[in-house]
Specification:
Blueprint (H helix, E strand, L loop, with lengths): L28 H9 L6 E2 L10 E3 L8 E3 L5 H5 L6 H21 L20 H21 L9 H4 L3 E4 L4 E4 L6 H11 L11 H6 L4 E2 L5 H10 L1 E6 L2 H13 L6 H13 L5 H6 L5 H9 L7 E2 L5 H4 L9 E4 L3 H11 L23 H8 L4 H10 L1 H6 L8
Parallel strand pairs: 1-8, 5-7, 7-9
Antiparallel strand pairs: 2-3, 4-5, 4-6
Helix pairs in contact: 9-15, 10-12, 12-16
Length: 401
């Protein structure tokens, strides 16, 4: 698939118009701003349902916008060691927490974007990659400047950074976008942090379930804000339609002890008339059209999942200004250039192997068209509408409509 990196000014008036929809469905500037600054955490199911946040909680009993930190949170470190009678401890801790959250409210949002430090890049071969990178950065920055408004998050900071992985040695923040090379990126982070000697020796389960890597939401507010402002922040994205088909193939076309019973059964029950008892019992055999109906349903029978959630809701790119915007379509070049920028060992290269189902053809434009041929034009348009913000933010064309 050819990806066209269009300059921001190439869109007439830069007023996005959905020509296939009636005027009442045109995405207005106000609607885009609302989506960009919406912090409400969506209901995401996790492939590891036992995984819980041990050190941070959203307090459902507190007033809206109030975050609670449990007693063993790293947030206590920011408040200092408190001694004295229990009542005094409680008062001082409460005052300390208020101070920390006051600082959060005073933070400057969106975060400033910093020029990339290119002093460690010695080769001239990265010239084209660098030009593409600067184009993407400036495009996203201009888009956010025009549509992001001046809103700052009032709550849910820990949710906003919950997909961001931390590598302290090379000062890297990587926002995980599933189906956009995230497994191999986590392998790279494990090598950089000294947890492994080679990216090629790390299994899929060790990458995703080993819990070796730190996430940004495991730090206190000071630790989060300091890293956001001083580390190199990277996000890697993918054409939304291609990413969606890739997720469907991975989770529903192969045996899966989580996605079939949790998502498959609910999808078949609601969207397949006269489903057989076997399908209802095991959730296997979900059709792509049924999956699309689930995705577009405002009353989904089961929650969203990070593998097909919008990047704008995973990484908040108009509030967290990313220093590096990589694309799956140029993954190896972008990733290896990024490794040069952060001073990674010269021998470390981004792995190009397929993490799972290695015998399957990679999901590309041709494969996507095979899946979309069973959808109506309206259904294809509605998928585009669903990922509208991702298409705009990252300057993707819409070749499948």
């Amino acid at each position: 698939m050819v990806i066209h990196e269009l300059p921001f000014s190439s869109f007439p008036g830069w007023e996005p118009v959905n020509y296939l929809q009636p005027a009442s469905r045109i995405m207005t500037r106000e609607k885009i701003q609302e989506q960009i600054t919406d912090q409400d955490p969506k209901f995401h199911l996790t492939e590891d349902p036992k995984e819980e946040k041990e050190n941070l909680q959203l307090n459902s009993e507190s007033p809206p916008g109030v975050l609670r930190q449990t007693s063993h949170s790293q947030g206590d470190q920011a408040l200092g060691k408190i001694t004295g009678p229990p009542t005094i401890k409680l008062i001082e801790r409460h005052q300390g927490t208020r101070t920390v959250f006051k600082k959060f409210r005073e933070m400057k949002w969106p975060l400033d974007i910093h020029p990339l430090n290119k002093s460690l890049v010695k080769d001239n071969k990265w010239k084209e990659t660098d030009v593409a990178q600067e184009t993407r950065r400036s495009f996203l920055q201009e888009f956010c400047k025009k549509y992001g408004g001046v809103s700052r998050p009032q709550s849910h900071l820990f949710h906003m950074v919950s997909r961001i992985y931390v590598e302290d040695k090379h000062k890297i923040l990587y926002c995980e976008v599933p189906k956009a090379g995230c497994s191999n990126w986590k392998r790279i982070l494990m090598v950089l942090s000294g947890l492994a000697s080679s990216a090629y020796n790390i299994s899929h389960d060790a990458v995703h379930y080993g819990k070796h890597l730190k996430k940004l939401d495991s730090f206190d507010l000071k630790g989060i804000y300091t890293r956001l402002n001083t580390y190199t922040k990277a996000v890697f994205v993918r054409d939304p339609m291609e990413r969606l088909v890739s997720a469907f193939r991975d989770k529903f076309e192969h045996p899966n002890s989580y996605y079939h019973p949790v998502f498959g059964k609910a999808i078949i029950k609601k969207y397949r008339p006269n489903a057989c008892e076997e399908a209802l019992n095991n959730g296997s055999g979900v059709k792509f059209k049924e999956f699309v109906h689930y995705l577009l349903d405002s009353h989904r029978p089961v929650g969203m999942d990070i593998h097909w959630e919008k990047v704008s809701k995973l990484c908040y790119p108009c509030l967290i200004n990313y220093d590096f915007v990589g694309k799956f379509e140029t993954l190896e070049e972008d990733a290896n250039y990024f490794l040069q920028l952060v001073g990674a060992p010269k021998e470390l290269k981004f792995p190009n192997f397929k993490d799972r189902h290695s015998s399957d053809e990679r999901t590309n434009a041709q494969v996507v068209r095979q899946y979309l041929k069973d959808l109506t034009r309206t259904e294809r348009q509605l998928i585009y509408d669903f990922y509208y913000l991702d298409y705009l933010m990252f300057n993707y064309t819409t070749p499948f409509l």
